[in-house]
Amino acid sequence: MLRTEQTIISCALTGSVHTPTLSAHLPVTPQQIIDQGLEAVEAGAAVLHLHARDPRTGRPTASARMFDQFVPELRASGAVINITTGGSTRMTWEERLEAARHLSPELASLNMGSMNFVFSGPAHREREWKFDWERDYLLGSGDIVFANTFAQIERTLRVLGETGTRFEFECYDVGHLYTLAHFMDRGLVRTPLLVQCILGVLGGIGADPDNLSHMHATAEKLFGDDYYLSAFAAGRHQTAFITQSALLGGHVRVGLEDNLYLERGRLAVSNAEQVRKAARILDELGRPTATPDQARSLLKLKGPGA
């Protein structure tokens, strides 16, 4: 693993899992995404991981026109822009790639395998829903396979790679690391890799510290000095796993896409609140946070003007 003094904090602002009823602080409109993104950068985030929402209903959307309403202002902040290609489990591959193809970002996320991706838990509790789509959307996650076939992965690497976009390789299980190694052996990915280990999603590897240790050890065997580790866990496990990632010498990701809470029983009022917490932990560990330009240098990104 490549080691560096600085630690990159990525912030995933809104995602496609949580729905507006679950937190009034989840950014939905373009202006809310802009405001929370700028605040997160000021708090110490070097990378902004971006999804889009329909501002009327809060439903995830793949519309490039919607991304156009907030990406330019966030890009002007100097932050590294990371556009999702995961989108939502309800979207086709073509829809999921629409915004990244249109915007040609410095970074794009890329899921490294098909999987069950279940987030139905909140729908089993009694609550008043703000929008009629929310409950069925959450429950429906239990009956859908999130498709990321080898052919889809290869097409994504080729289509976006031609524009110089690099990737945040999202690995939800150990097998996804071997899939990434396969594409590396074929010369379809460029080093250094940014390997994002994601734990605690129902259908992926569980949020057990031993599992992250195992993924780290496996990545060491597969990628040696050709990768940077980053890791996080969904929901209540967020803080423990960003701490473990930092202790391993890796980078971290926080944000309301992954966890709506700041601590047990207390909703985070903004993405920046989670970024500030991560920065405090890193400071206590003697790990200074990376600036956007330092992140660009480490990851060998093409730069915001490209």
TrEMBL record:
A family per Pfam: BKACE
Transmembrane regions listed in the UniProt entry: none
Keyword vocabulary terms for this entry: Metal-binding, Transferase, Zinc
Presence of the UniProt keyword Isomerase in the record: no
Cofactor dependency: Zn(2+)
Top-level taxon: Bacteria
Gene3D superfamilies named among the record's database cross-references: Aldolase class I
Entry annotated with the keyword Transferase: yes
Protein name: 3-keto-5-aminohexanoate cleavage protein
